[in-house]
Input
Amino acid sequence: MQTSVPKSGRAAVLVRQPSPRPYAESRPLEIADVALDDVQYGEVQVAVGSAGVCHSDLSTVDATFVRPTPLVLGHEAAGTVEAVGPGVDRLKPGDKVVFSFIPTCGQCTECASGRPALCEPGWRASAAGTLLRGARRMRRDGEPLFMHLGVGGFAQRTIVAQESLVKIPDDTPLEVAALFGCAALTGLGAVMNSAKVEAGTSVAIFGAGGVGLMTLLGAVVAGATSIVVVDPVAEKRDLAMDLGATAVVDPSDGNAVDGVRAALGGRGAQYAFEAAGNAKALESAFGATAGGGVTIAVGLPRNEATMPLPHSLLVRQSRTLKGSLMGDSVPQRDIPRYIELWKAGRLPIERLITGRIGLDQLNASLDALAEGRVVRSVLIP
Output
């Protein structure tokens, strides 16, 4: 390892769960100077170039997902490799990388079956707030810090397992690249891997945040000819139309299911995606699905969330209801594919970037996200 590599930086540390809103006042994230250990076997030090502020970050702050603290938040990020430890054979200093928020061991049953999003060692490490092999390499005043989903992306630099990284072409702008690490894997993957949307079909999307709009872009790429987006925020509905939706529905106007069906000529959608992370939206998505159609649950709700399921419709109309974790993606395969689609002009994901912020603006950016005022704020640490 090169001894000249910097071993410190600033990071956003989540110090309590939950904190009351507005977060700009309660300040659950403290911006602190953080020291980094030397990289060990299978580990990589990365200078973070950008990180998206995702709803899963907000769900960690408000304790929808309980994590150990103090924790370096952030999981959707991109950066440049600064140093590699022994055993790292896929990366070298200077490589550009995107972080994958589920480290994949490559050896468990799920990984071997082509479903790395369900990697058991990866999820155990993420729940514990550690790297894949159990380490914690960032310290504040000598105290080891926990890591958000093995990434800790709200930092100037971080140390992660090599299994959490995907090498990307050198000419990929890091500001755009960050969105491939979560929003693209989840939204595009839901369309292309989980649902396998076919050309000429109809799609309904409930929720027009970062993942919902990425689902929309995926439906456009897949060749869906009718795409209806449901969201209560007018600016997001307008953006959805600009990105390829054929109709939008404001759920606050009344029955969103009726609105979707009206936009589709009285029929339901052949594919309906719930990207809002709440059971009511999933219930509506199921209600807006046509006979023989597929309903995909994409957003992450609270653990206790439930929805009534009309059993008879499931059988009599030959419906399918399925979940999609990380878009059933294989990061090493899918991220390079999606970047090539972006380079070809078919995935204008830069349109999803609402604004650029620094570390000191993170607490306020969480308020904006919670209030639905942004799609993706991108942190430039």
Observations:
- The longest helix spans residues 183-195.
- The chain has two domains: 8-181+348-379, 187-325.
- The chain has a mean pLDDT of 96.
- The chain has 13 helices and 19 strands.
